[in-house]
Amino acid sequence: MVFRNKLLEACCIWIAAIVSAQARIFNDQQVEFFQREGYIKVSGLMDESFVGGLAEAATYTIKTSPKFHFYFSVSQSGILFGSTAAKDKHQNETATVSAQAFRQAALYSQFPQAVAELLKLDPGKHNLRVLRDVFMAKSVEDPESCDWHVDDLGLWPQSFLPAAEGIDGVNVWIALDDMPAAFQGSMALSSRSHTASWRHRAYLALGQNRSQDGGRSKEDVIRKILDHRQKNSSSSANKDKKPQKAKYPTCDIRITDPEVTEKLDAAQVVLDLKRGDVIFATRRLFHRTMPVTEAGLEFYRKQGQEHLSRYSIRYVPGSAKLPQGWSVEWSILEDAANAGRSLDAVVEHGEKMFYPQVWPAFDTSFEPRLKGMEVALPSLAQRAQEEYMATIFGATAEQQVSPSK
């Protein structure tokens, strides 16, 4: 109950502060920096009491979530809608309060206004919706990391083609623990990679043709994964290593294209992050997860700290379209006709609020439609998780089905 009261109080204080804050967040130089470099770091954008509430919500989520075991110990998508891991009435109540912290950050904060400024959106022509939010906690002991990549359709379920007028989305990445650059464990960025002349070569190395929608049939997805695993096992970059679990192409650019990886490495930026610091990064900026250094391991062990937590919110224009083809996106699992639709159209045609509008005005129908999401979420999330893990990480030759069958 202490956690509940403290968190609700922090939420109320922060909401009051942001509602009254109408001033512009970024100046022209900062917007220019973002568009040129592909990212910008901001400190002090959230009230410290609310940051503390988010950190407590993160601790609760780590304790109650099933372990993920693939680069992150915990990975919970759609957490603003509520927890999918609560098992009893008490957990449900606490999970609801925990979800409110993430919900306040994603929906009612200054983040949507900040993203609109960075993208130079016109409130008379454009809107912003939350495409996806995800809480992630990385074990400080985990040496595995996803190498340079741009999020694929699993984590950023949007057509590879830009939304109307060529507008891309923005990832708002919030540090919920201190992550000193010297200790790593956070997210590295490859500056200006979103506009580099070689970017399409790098996309192709990830198995992403970003001149097309990107959607594929399930059979093609499995075929691509198996082909990648075969090449990976025979790669000269991997021949001297001990046997390891095959990875997904999104995380293996160092194997598939060492030359372009050198270009990404050359532009690497590792930011010194304090709890509550925020990174705004354009959708197409290459980034990678970083394992904790030996010095960092020693430091965190002395502190008794087991995880480094972060919360990511992906904002996109409502005109952005969902991909065609096989997908475990919740709205498509709910209604297959949503494949290829814009987020605006999905919300217009459906009863559930999968993609809340947050700018230029908040969609007031969200709260009434939230109950439907809370009821549907557990089964949709489980179905999506099982399908994704079985297809992406459990792909076998037997799963390949000829399109003619």
Secondary-structure map:
Layout: H1 2-19, H2 28-37, E1 39-42, H3 48-64, E2 74-77, H4 89-107, H5 111-119, E3 128-139, E4 170-175, E5 187-190, H6 199-205, H7 218-234, H8 253-256, H9 258-266, E6 268-269, E7 278-282, E8 287-289, H10 294-303, E9 307-317, H11 330-334, H12 343-349, E10 357-359, H13 366-393
Antiparallel strand pairs: 1-7, 2-3, 3-9, 3-10, 4-7, 4-9, 5-6, 5-8
Helix pairs in contact: 1-3, 1-4, 3-4
Strand-residue proportion: 5-15%
Order of helices and strands: HHEHEHHEEEHHHHEEEHEHHEH
Q: Outline the biggest β-sheet.
A: 7 strands, antiparallel
Number of strands: 10
User: Over the alpha carbons, how many angstroms does the gyration radius reach?
Assistant: 21 Å
Give the overall average pLDDT.
Answer: 85
Helix content: 25-40%
Shape call: globular
